[in-house]
Amino acid sequence: MEATVGIIGLGGMGTGMAKNLLEDCKARDKQLMVFNRTTAKSEPLRKAGAHVADSVGALAAACELVLVMLANDEALWAVFEEALPRMRPGGVFVDCSTVYPATTKDLAAKAIENGKHYLSCPVFGRPDVVATRKCVMVMAGPPEIKARVRPLLEPLGRAVLDAGDSVEEGSILKLVGNFFIAGAIELLAEGMTLSDAAGLQREKLLEWLNLMIPGVIFEGYGGRMAKGLQRVDGEGFAVDMAIKDASHIQRLAQETRASVPTIATVLDHLKGAQAKGRGDWDWSAVAATVREASGRNAEP
């Protein structure tokens, strides 16, 4: 079997993606290689049939396509600089992380200088959504590289969107998309707090929301808030990570002189949750901050 695909970073989302990639690679008679600095996270995949690399460089040298799913810009830079010298000529570095557009642009330029390719491919979806192949992926980069990688990505989610031919466009769309989701969470937190304070039955508000504003964001996060499910249960997006994304959104707004005051409110409420020891709660924990600011219990 030929080892042509590798994935680095086996957090909540990376593990779900790796499991699905392993199934797909087996169906195509190809070998998946994985790497994670906490080696214990690789063991279930090893037992399922994946090869486990002993370093980033070893994986980069063995694989034609190197996918990464990492926590932040700093981690991405560190892995990229370790992988780049060992990557095959013409190899593709596919970044599925949520990072700042300038980071994406700089990494892509360095890859090209060294005879390699770079594709931005951030992912929309919680870990459970990724694991069940219902995520949305956003590709950005040279058309020929997107065409080369698309067949690998399409089975992993419900849609692969083409964000453009400049790699930073993928990161921009991810941040703007996350801004919409964060704004919706903030709106739900404030609206549900107002509804509770005024004495409306929570079930009646949810019924109205599902009729008037249907969709995965309002139905999903509205339902979680109503049930007090802001604590991370292995399927959420932690407050600590959300603060990083919200900070990137705020920076993008400042650098482009876009007036988006909502993100400042979201960031303030996320930091409030973190200060109360809720950094590992789902980012819908902004509802707890809003409820407490309104003199109510953190959880309904």
Word description of this protein:
The protein has 300 residues and is of the alpha/beta class. The chain has helices at residues 12-27, 43-48, 56-62, 73-83, 101-113, 127-131, 143-153, 168-198, 202-212, 216-227, 239-256, 262-275, 286-293; strands spanning 2-8, 30-35, 51-52, 65-68, 92-95, 117-120, 123-124, 136-140, 159-164. α8 (168-198) packs across α11. The longest helix has 31 residues, at 168-198. The model has no long low-confidence stretch (mean pLDDT 95).
Secondary-structure topology with pairs:
Elements: E1 2-8, H1 12-27, E2 30-35, H2 43-48, E3 51-52, H3 56-62, E4 65-68, H4 73-83, E5 92-95, H5 101-113, E6 117-120, E7 123-124, H6 127-131, E8 136-140, H7 143-153, E9 159-164, H8 168-198, H9 202-212, H10 216-227, H11 239-256, H12 262-275, H13 286-293
Parallel strand pairs: 1-2, 1-4, 2-3, 4-5, 5-6, 8-9
Antiparallel strand pairs: 7-8
Helix pairs in contact: 5-8, 8-10, 8-11, 8-12, 8-13, 9-10, 11-12, 12-13
TL;DR?
This protein is an alpha/beta fold and 300 residues long. The chain has helices spanning 12-27, 43-48, 56-62, 73-83, 101-113, 127-131, 143-153, 168-198, 202-212, 216-227, 239-256, 262-275, 286-293, and strands spanning 2-8, 30-35, 51-52, 65-68, 92-95, 117-120, 123-124, 136-140, 159-164.
